[in-house]
Amino acid sequence: MQVVSARDITERNQSQKALQIKENHRRKQSQTLVQLARSKTFQQGDLNAALKEITKAAARTLSVKRVGVWLYNQERSKIECIDLYNVSTKEHSFGNSLSEKNYPAYFQALEEERTIAVDDAINDKRTQELAESYLSVWGITSVLDAPIWLEGCLIGVVCHEHIGEKRQWTLEEETFAGSIADFVTLAIEAKERNFAQEALRQSEAQFRAIFERSSIGIALIDMKAQIVDTNLALCEILGYSREELDGKRFTDYICTQRGDLKLYKQLTSGIHTDLERTSRVGFQPSKHQEQFVERHRIEMERRCLHQNGSLVWTHISVSVIPASNGEPEFFLAMIEDITERKETELKLRVSQEAAEAASRAKSEFLATMSHELRTPLNAIMGLSQLLQQEIVGSLNEKQNEYVSCIYSSGEHLLALINDILDLSKIEADKEELLLSPLPVSDLCNYAIWTVRDRALEKGLQLTCKIDVEDNICIGDERRIKQMLLNLLTNAIKFTSVGQVSLVVKNVSQGITFTVSDTGIGIDSNQFTFLFEPFKQLDSRLNRQYEGTGLGLALTRKLARLHGGDVTVISTLGEGSQFTLFLPNPVEMQTEQNKGQQDTATTSSPATPQNQIILLVEEEENAAIVLQDYLQTIGYQVKWIDNINNFLEQVQNLQPNLILLDVQLIGNASGWDLLNVLKQEPYFPDLQVVMMGFSELPQEKLSIVQAGANDYLIKPIRVVQLESILTRYLNSSDFQINETPI
After folding, report:
1. Cα–Cα distance for residue pair 323/453, rounded to 1 Å
2. Which of the residues bear the PTM 4-aspartylphosphate (predicted)?
């Protein structure tokens, strides 16, 4: 009898079958992950290709219809699909997006959960917001979403979307989804790494191109001063090949100076100082780098030794290149050949010295010509004045006409000489202004009265209008009169019919003197030449209008010396308008105004009674003029030109007045004689008036300080001399006719 036992193993077989299926899924997942890990797509850094491979493999392995990779936008306000694989169509797409404000619960779940495994996506609170607009549209019933993390930051999600019956996700599937998300992270990192490497390669290529093609020599030098690398430009500067320079000491090719080694040490020590400071206060890259550029560079000009033995002038800029740890690793030297520039500088220096010598020669020439030209003018104008006074006899009408012509011609020549000297003084910055408060009406009346006769001779209407609130301006009286006369004289000269007007107005920052005419006018193309010295718009030898071209140039320079300017408006054939602008005056005391205004007339000298004048003058003609005039009006005059017996003459004559020429012939000048007189006990009782051609204000001041009573400017006019005689000899009866100045 046989006994047969039977057992139901259906459940065991089913369990074994389930385990086999589970093992097959695990094996399939592992194979997929190994294939992705071995894929060369990640090494190439092509993100699109890598994502396509990842989504396709994930869909095949998990048997889902759709797998998508979604990344946050820059503002993190939404996620955007950058690759979606559809198994049914076997196609990849992109471009859809989900906004956080529309699906806040889903976005919160992404931030908080490791994976979002949802069996019933339509009803799950984490995904039900997506039901109407997304899940139902594609028939999605279950989702398995794995967040994508990069450097600790959530950057997106990999969505595995199941279509059909609801699906329950296993723990292995959730782990696999997380691994797929990690592969997305690896793909993104590979792309960024390849991008950085490519940028580095391009940067190195660009640097090498700049290094090689630079026209400035470049050398990379280690901390032992040995040359590590050079470019072609440096090889050409030094005359060596790159191989010949490699490993050589950089300082062997430079003519060093005392203190250079100290500079290099300071350059490297500055790095350590900054490192210590940075470690204490924290590193701020941009600010630190900016300070590095300013602090860690030295620049110098040194001569370099060329291969042929010659010396080449160079400009060298040396900077420190730190290593990754911040320690100095290399010197970067930029060497520019400046030999040509140095030669040019040498030529310019020689030219400058020559120009300065020429300027000194010009000044000396002008000083000499000033004396040589004014000396005969002194005699011409002085003698013509004596003839006009008819001291030596009466003149007939024709003779009076000739004498007046001689005198006016002398004044014209004197004005020309004065303009040239004035212009030279201003250009040499030696002109000083004697500023004082001046009545505007007096200045204008003087200018109008002076040019009135010239205007009448040409039949021109001459007008003056003063429209100012305050009748005072601040300036140098002689210079302002000179500027107004220049402008009015020019206007009359270039106007044949019509009128010339002077209008004075207050403006916001000063006062303007505007001279208008109806003359020939000026072409606008010629404006640039108007104020150039010695430049005339009509430069032909047979030109219609006289002049040297100095008037306007001098006027503008004098105006700018006052802080103002001269401007012009003109139309060819219609007339011109020149405007002199003077800035607002500085407040001055009324007492100064009264004290510095010159009186228009002076009392006439009176009959001298046994008064003696000692005349010390080296130029004979000038002495004759003064002696004859003074003797004619009753003074006893002793003229000496020999300074050897000067003190003896003073002691013997006991003169009431000494007229002493500043410039004398011999070993002593008028200054020397004045100093000699100061040593004598009787000096305080002497009255000394100096005579000279110079009009410098500082010279007048020095004369007063030296002990003289006054100063006469040559050529000496009768009115000037009368003023001196009246002031210091105090006579009251004798009168002569005044001669116009």
Report:
1. 89
2. 661
